[in-house]
Specification:
Layout lengths: L1 H18 L2 E4 L7 H16 L6 E4 L7 H10 L4 E5 H4 L18 H21 L2 E16 L6 H4 L5 E3 L3 H9 L5 E3 L4 H7 L4 E4 L1 H6 L8 E3 L4 E10 H5 L3 H35 L3 E3 L3 H20 L5 H18 L4
Parallel strand pairs: 1-2, 1-3, 5-6, 8-10
Antiparallel strand pairs: 3-9, 4-7, 4-8, 4-9
């Protein structure tokens, strides 16, 4: 009899584990590289947990905007979502910290810093009741426009786009004395067409994806910001998953995000080559001018910390990591 009860209890637990999949929202469209990797990760999770854990995705923004998605997670209607750094700042203010202007010079610096700072970001999300199951980079964003920008002074005369509610971009342009024009992403291409704006910032792959490359003809060849994305899961929803299965979920999700990270680098390299072939001019600032751009970034950083946008300790951790790496390479800030 006890054996029968044990079998019955096990069946009940198995049924409960498969009855409610983890529901995850994303703006990524079906068929995109992001969705392909995440579906591959979901398939691996289902296989490794013998069907006890499933991930159900709601792609292409069908769950609404950022605020709507966060509200649905709080209500339990969703269990998680993919966010950009700026979007995730509504949950945890340090989320977009890798996007501080002119902070990083190359991927080697990003990789070195992330090894020690990603765990700090995960801890910050955990304190807000969310699990950062995946963190990945989307590449470096660069300034690009319809006319050449050789100096930071020339940028002041440009009609520069800034994403709505992106405080990092706003602070960077303010520090440079630029009166930027905030627009939603969907209005950028029409803005370039009409001349409302003439200078934008995006990754190379993003510029091609949104067709901005048909309008912009010049790139400031200095990394502006680093784009980062997260997959956040509600900790209460994840806690309902048995601990061994929970470890599998986290391993496979981050594995998918690692593959997304790698593919984004390849895509941006290929996109850069495409832009060159199309005749887009890449203008590298002089070392003196690059220093001035970085001074603007430092000023924006100090302003953002003063405003409470970022925790000083997190910025300090990034700076310490960069300093250690650059000291070993013989570089100065």
């Amino acid at each position: 009899m006890f054996r029968a009860l044990a079998v019955f209890a096990a069946l009940l637990l198995a049924t409960a584990a498969t009855a409610a999949p983890l529901k995850i929202a994303t703006v990524a469209p079906e068929g995109s590289g992001w969705m392909r990797e995440m579906r591959a990760g979901a398939a691996a999770i289902r296989q490794r947990t013998d069907g006890r854990v499933e991930l159900k995705f709601y792609p292409a923004g069908v769950m609404g905007n950022n605020a709507a998605v966060i509200r649905k997670i709080k209500l339990g209607q969703l269990h998680g979502a993919a966010f950009t750094g700026a979007e995730a700042s509504a949950v945890y203010s340090d989320a977009p910290i890798y996007g501080l202007p002119f902070l990083f010079r190359d991927y080697a610096e990003i990789d070195h810093v992330r090894a020690s700072v990603d765990p700090l970001l995960r801890a910050g999300f955990a304190a807000k009741g969310m699990v950062a199951a995946g963190i990945s980079g989307g590449g470096f964003a660069y300034l690009m426009g319809t006319r050449p920008i050789r100096t930071h002074e020339e940028l002041r005369d440009a009609k520069v786009w800034t994403p709505q509610s992106d405080r990092i971009s706003e602070a960077a342009f303010e520090a440079g004395g630029v009166s930027a024009i905030p627009l939603p992403l969907t209005d950028v291409y029409p803005g370039l067409q009409t001349g409302l704006i003439d200078t934008v910032a995006n990754t190379f792959a993003g510029a091609i994806f949104f067709q901005w490359h048909t309008k912009v003809k010049h790139v400031v060849d200095l990394p502006l910001t680093f784009v980062v994305g997260y997959l956040l899961l509600d900790d209460k929803a994840l806690a309902r998953v048995a601990e061994p299965d929970r470890a599998i979920v986290l391993e496979e999700v981050q594995g998918a995000f690692d593959r997304i990270d790698e593919s984004s680098r390849r895509d941006n390299d290929a996109a850069r080559a495409t832009l060159v072939k199309l005749g887009v001019a890449f203008i590298a600032p002089t070392s003196v001018e690059a220093g001035r751009w970085r001074e603007i970034g430092d000023k924006a950083e100090r302003q953002l910390i003063a405003e409470g946008e970022f925790m000083p300790a997190t910025v300090a951790a990034i700076r310490a990591s960069l300093a250690a790496l650059r000291a070993g390479q013989g570089k100065a800030r």
